[in-house]
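Entry:
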Amino acid sequence: MDELLLNVKNYIVKHKLYDPKNPLKILVHGNELGSLLKKSEFSLLDVRDILLQKFVFPVSEKNSSEVICSISDKMCVSKKRKLDNDSEFSAKRIKGLDDTSCCNSDESMHSFQ
């Protein structure tokens, strides 16, 4: 995550996407970064939260099957199942999470191990 944050910061500086009067304000309207994040502007202080809302990250490099999900529960379970299958882990580990009635529509943070 830290490496990604550094890359985003470097991209912002390289492409001069910050407001000269307020360097914490990032202006990405019409830019690839804006298209990717679906934002026209944001605060530099919000980059981490924006990335967590949009993407799934490994918790650690040692065990990349452990993920942090900041998307809906159902999508998180789907991503976890894919990681488990790729890693030859049993999908039964998340059996209790298959019931869609437990899925929230909020974008709260979840960690599966």
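The radius of gyration is 17 Å.
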